Amino acid sequence: MKSLPFLKAPRRRMTQPAETVAIIVAAGRGARAGAGGPKQYRPLAGEAVLARTARAFLDHPGVSAVRVIIHADDGELYRQAMAGLNSHRKLMPPVTGGKERQDSVRLGLESLEDAAPVIVLIHDAARPFIDAPTISRVIDAARAHGGAIAALPVFDTLKKSDGAARPAIADTLSREGLWRAQTPQGFRFEAILSAHRAVAGEALTDDAAVAERAGIKVALVAGSPDNMKITQAEDFGMAEILLGRKKEMMEFRTGHGFDVHEFEDGTAVILCGVSIPHGKKLKGHSDADAGMHALTDAILGAIGAGDIGDHFPPSEAKWKGAPSRIFLEKARDLVTEKGGTITHCDVTLICEAPKIGPHRALMRAALAEILAISIDRVSVKATTTEQLGFTGRREGIAALATASVRLPLSD
Q1: C-beta neighbour count of 291 within 10 angstroms
Q2: Are the beta carbons of 332 and 342 closer than 8 angstroms?
Q3: How far apart are the C-alpha atoms of 343 and 258, rounded to whole Å?
Q4: Domain 5-248 fold
Q5: How far is CA 331 from its chain centroid?
Q6: Is residue 125 within 8 Å of residue 50, measured between CB atoms?
Q7: Mind listing the pLDDT tens digit for each residue in 144-159?
Q8: How do residues 330-346 score in pLDDT, each as one tens digit?
């Protein structure tokens, strides 16, 4: 396994044990997809296929981290394709794969030995339409059975050819009990790593076959017809059509949030995740980050999920002094569980002091990192009340927030 130090951002430590890590296999050449370079780096409606695939796992609340396995020659292609995601806290530095897919998966698994996840998901980079419910089903089944794959039952009649240059039907095969395998395929980490090492050098068709060889029970869970694999050049056209249909079947919602906190004795205020030196601090049960609180309520409002107090009651001692990113992460995860994405957020901080301008860039970056969206989808502004009211008297800070969310169209 060859490391790629020129691609590595500062190594991000996981804040919790690596319960589930997703490996995205992106080391192939994709020759059947025609000219234009490896298919995983080609654009699909303006975004690289790999980036679309990776985002599905980065945004999933049940996935602790994501590692991409790439070809040794694709460092620059990877950097360009993942430019909007490279700062994501869940994204591990990429590692290089091997000659065959099976080699790449084994090398990817070996790169996770230090992290020692409980469950590992293995997914093809060329399946950019994987959805959150399918990922959740595979995780749950892998945890329960030791192995699981997304799959679809076969409904078409199956014909076997006679193998001639101009083939004819030699037999009709029974489709009883047959399923079409998809990815992700999930397994208990230690078991699938041992299984891959045991068959190194062979050429089994997928990771479930590797697991079967080792005697690992592999459960079948419902995949999705939309979870297509881009294989041939014409598949890009089908993918564009599918993407267009998915966009047409989405709805956009907007939520608003408002929060106020008064000052008390202290040395700094925390706003939008950034500590700002000041002669006071904000009073509250948690860290009193008015900006994050308002934004959390805006996101919860957009999906009809109550407010911050419903999920984190101030009467519960465990939230005393809690960092507000916990609340914002919860709102983000609820959006993901509904199959949605946060498309934009706008926070306005209302105060006479401290000055917000010098800290806006850090605030935007902090919010973008938590919400797993690009920084150009995050706005932070500041204003005053012209010395009117409690903020004008410098008694506290208020915050307004708006969030836009894209959700699957409901009946």
Answers
A1: 31
A2: yes
A3: 19
A4: Spore Coat Polysaccharide Biosynthesis Protein SpsA; Chain A (3.90.550)
A5: 14
A6: yes
A7: 999 999 999 999 999 9
A8: 999 999 888 888 999 99
